[in-house]
Amino acid sequence: MIRSTVCITEYQGNIISWLDVDSKMERLSVDKPNEDITGNIYVGIVKHVVKNLDACFVEFKKDTLGFLSFNDVYPKMKVTEGMQIAVQVIKEASKNKEAVLTCRLSIPGQYCVAIYDDKSVNVSRKISGSKRNELRKAIPEDTDLCFTVRTNAASIDDISMITDEAYTLNERLHEIIKNCSMRKAPSLCFSSDKGYIRFLQSLPKNSFERVLTDNEVIFDEIKESYPCELYNDDYPLSKLYSLETKIQEVLNRNVWLKSGGNILIEHTEALTVIDVNSAKNISGKERETNILQINKEAAYQIARQLRLRNISGIIIVDFINMQKEASKQELTEYIKAQLITDPVKCDYVDMTSLGLVEIVRRKIKPPIYEILGK
Fold it and tell me: Which residue has the higher pLDDT, 283 or 317?
């Protein structure tokens, strides 16, 4: 019996990709066709230098400005107004904010990422032990870029696959750089992989058994790289997996816990606030133990919801108050363990004197509620 499937289908004009495990949605990606520019590389022109921000605004598409921090510019590069510059989109525009750009161009593969920077090799922090050194050596010494070995690399036995991919990425990125030098701004030099490809690349290969899609174009595009099946039954794929119901659950501000408690998710302009509630009276000798268990259940669900909903930025969580320092420490370690499984950089920051937990999650794409909740 197949328990884990990546499904890809069209829904409300968007391409929806999700990881379904035992009929539960564990990961979700929503892409608007022809609108997703994350990862694209452009030759742009610097329009405004803002010295007090240590940044500039670059016209990378016609009449479209992006924000470029000087922290994302090579140290020896002097940025002046009117100059042409190769940039890559690392965050899409959202609401009143421009897209965020970088000069540190990169292209991802299945097992590693090539970055146009000084030669070095980094390994995903989610890989530990002797495997780190083994994977580090898989990057060939005669490449001249910076490489980051992805979490996916830990799941393969033949590390020559990583070596081959590194050679390919090294050559490909140099070709892109050369192409950029011959283009006139503003122009597109490189289109990143489609959203569903990046979604598949972000998943460990042992996390799903098959890919199921009802789109022939997508099927033809991925069938050589993944165990893919084309769904062509009269009963829609979206209904077979109750997609609409699962989407509504992702958009709902209230999430119920098995213990009977719940978490409430509220979005503001500055941050996201999550409140943990107990729906039953907790008293007696085991009160602290029961509260800790509910808080840990909530922590697991919160980490899951951050991934599902693509919530980013500052997140404040108000857990149920506990008295013992040992309980607080146990909860803290449990939260950290849940967050490290996130494919997007997500860090536990601190627990305040009031017991509020601070989390920061990197923003790459708009949250699901902004895309589908309109």
Answer: 317
